[in-house]
From TrEMBL:
Positions that bind Zn(2+): 58, 60, 203, 291
Catalytic activity: S-adenosyl-L-homocysteine + H2O + H(+) = S-inosyl-L-homocysteine + NH4(+); S-methyl-5'-thioadenosine + H2O + H(+) = S-methyl-5'-thioinosine + NH4(+)
Superkingdom: Archaea
Cofactors, names only: Zn(2+)
PANTHER family listed in its UniProt record: AMIDOHYDROLASE-RELATED DOMAIN-CONTAINING PROTEIN, AMINOHYDROLASE SSNA-RELATED
Keywords: Hydrolase, Metal-binding, Zinc
Protein's recorded name: 5-methylthioadenosine/S-adenosylhomocysteine deaminase
Length: 421
């Protein structure tokens, strides 16, 4: 008898869909196969696609409060004239409710774990605890060349890690980017990450202008310089990585650094199209993220899956440039792998982070190959069940751990103060 049994679903196993039953004990998958199994709780999944949960590998979750706030602007203008100004008004309670809003959206669209880099991160962690969501969290640090600020930022980042680093919530260091963090500060972070045995998440090479300015100041592009100071290791996940040269891609592969690709945000801010196929061929682990809702405008990872494949086809003018299965794996197991979490696959022993989709939706019919249906036809609204750590967070489209109406009411009150910016 299992704690939870998912019965007779069409399950994504080792890159293809197979009819199977899944048994879950506590927070792990303990059986995958064709035997007739029973559970304390049972989900009848016939007529459903059963997938590993999606991993949103790069977010700024509370930026759900700024959805639609600053539009049709390039990144640096967007940051300097709108976003950085409005962020100064954020209070801890705002970040809590903005995070709850983002978590509710992610649960409803099949995300079971996410990585978040922002401010007032204790509130994000509290929202994760209360909702049951799995997460990798970090305080967004920037010293901007100030030695005093570097000390203070590092202290805040360390204290957050001490409070929250554990099993379901992993806490890591989150330096914002090489253009807001000095090389000396990044070296200090690398040293402390090694001492505390935690990872690092950082924005790198998001825009052409950013890279050109960095080269003018440092004579080398960001990845080459980060490697020179010993910053890059297997525990580093860089967000974006759009403007990379061949040498930098080779460095990332050699150092086993993962890249969180954010195609919707990259397009919306006109930042560019990342060289995903080149990275994959070089051996870089590429995973997928949405970035913040202010530059996306959703936390629906299914949009990123489809666009990841389509963009590489048009970038290389090859219809088979990036296969559907590769894009799907980027959203599942590659994200878990990037952050060293033992999930992202329907396999015995893996964490029980699983989603179920209604395969009878009109946009799935006919389903000659479910992999293509998932990658090219899914909108996110097909998700019926979201299971995190063996616990059902959404059942038959009903959120069980968060109050959707209360979140909506709180957010509508909070955003009144942003209207004058």
């Amino acid at each position: 008898m299992y704690d939870l049994a998912i019965k007779d679903g069409l399950c994504y196993i080792n890159g293809e869909f197979k009819r199977a039953n899944i048994g879950i004990t506590e927070n792990r998958i303990t059986y995958v196969g064709s035997d007739n199994i029973h559970g304390e709780v049972e989900i009848k999944a016939r007529g459903s696609f059963v997938l590993p949960g999606l991993f949103n590998a790069h977010t700024h979750l509370a930026m759900s409060l700024f959805r639609g706030f600053a539009e049709d602007m390039p990144l640096l203008e967007w940051l300097k004239t709108k976003i950085w100004k409005v962020e100064r008004l954020l209070e801890p309670k705002d970040v809590y409710w903005g995070s709850m809003l983002g978590i509710a959206e992610m649960i409803k669209t099949g995300t079971t774990c996410f990585s978040d880099l922002y401010i007032h991160m204790d509130e994000v962690a509290r929202a994760c605890e209360e909702s049951g969501m799995r997460a990798v969290l970090c305080y967004g640090m920037a010293d901007r060349g100030s030695e005093e600020r570097a000390k203070e930022e590092l202290k805040i980042g360390e204290k957050f890690i001490e409070r929250w680093n554990g099993e379901k919530i992993k806490a890591v260091f989150g330096p914002h980017a090489p253009y807001t963090c000095s090389l000396e500060f990044l070296s200090q972070i690398r040293e402390r990450a090694d001492e505390l045995n935690v990872g690092i998440h950082i924005h790198v090479s998001e825009t052409k202008e950013e890279v050109e300015n960095f080269i003018k100041a440092n004579s080398k592009p960001p990845v080459e310089k980060l490697d020179e100071i010993g910053f890059l290791k297997e525990d580093v996940v860089i967000a974006h990585g759009i403007w990379l040269n061949d040498k930098e891609i080779d460095i990332l592969a050699k150092r086993k650094v993962s890249v969180a690709h954010n195609p919707v945000s990259n397009l919306k801010l006109a930042s560019g199209i990342a060289r995903v196929v080149d990275m994959v061929k070089a051996g870089v682990n590429v995973c997928l993220g949405t970035d913040g809702a202010a530059s996306n405008n959703t936390y629906n990872l299914f949009e990123e899956i489809k666009l990841t494949s389509l963009l590489q086809k048009i970038k290389l003018m090859k219809a088979d440039a990036l296969k559907a299965r590769d894009a799907l794996d980027m959203a599942c197991k590659n994200g878990y792998r990037a952050y060293g979490i033992d999930g992202g696959e329907i396999k015995e022993g893996k964490l029980a982070d699983i989603i179920i989709l209604d395969s009878k939706r009109l946009n799935f019919i006919p389903a000659y190959n479910p992999v293509y249906s998932i990658v090219y036809s899914t909108t996110g609204c097909e998700v019926t069940h979201t299971i995190v750590d063996g616990k059902i967070l959404m059942e038959d489209k009903e959120l069980l751990t968060v109050d959707e109406d209360r979140i909506r009411d709180k957010v509508e009150k909070i955003i009144e103060k942003f209207a004058t910016i």
